[in-house]
Amino acid sequence: MAWRPGRGGAIPAAVLLFLLAGCASRPPEAPPAPPPPPAAPTAIVMDAADNAGLQGALRQVAAKPVDEVVGWANPDSGKRGAVKILRDGYDSANRPCREFHSVVILDKLYQHATGFLCRQPDGAWEVADLREFPLFRRPD
C-alpha cells in the first residue's frame, strides 16, 4: 500500500524525522590553538658581537671620570649593557687601576660583574680580577 497524503501521516513523518536526523550538521571544529610563546631565556650567553660591544664600552669608560656610565647594545642579539667606573687606585705592582661595575641585560635577565681595569706598561688597559654575580631575573 502506497502512502497518500492525509492518511496515516504520523508514521511517514516519524520516518522522515529519522532519516533527516542523520543529516544534522556538526558544530564547526575549533581553530587550532596558537603556538606557545617562545621560552624566556634562562642564561645570558655572549657572542662575539656582544663581547665586542662590552670591550668597546670598557675601552671608553677607562678614559671617563668616576661614576660616568658608558652603554652598549647589540640589536642582533637583543643584549645591551653598561659599564661604570667606581673608583681609582693602584694594584700590588703599583699600576694604576680602576674598579668598574658592568651589567649585561637580556629581556628580564641581568648579569652584574665587577672587576679592575689596570694599565699595562704599554698604556693599554687589562681587565683583572673579574667577578660575576648570580644571574638576576626581574619579576613580572
UniProtKB/TrEMBL annotation:
InterPro entries: Anti_2. It comes from the Bacteria. Keywords: Signal. Residues 65-131 form the Surface antigen domain. Pfam families: 17kDa_Anti_2 (PF16998). Residues 1-24 form the signal peptide. This is RT0821/Lpp0805 family surface protein. It comes from Rhodocista pekingensis.
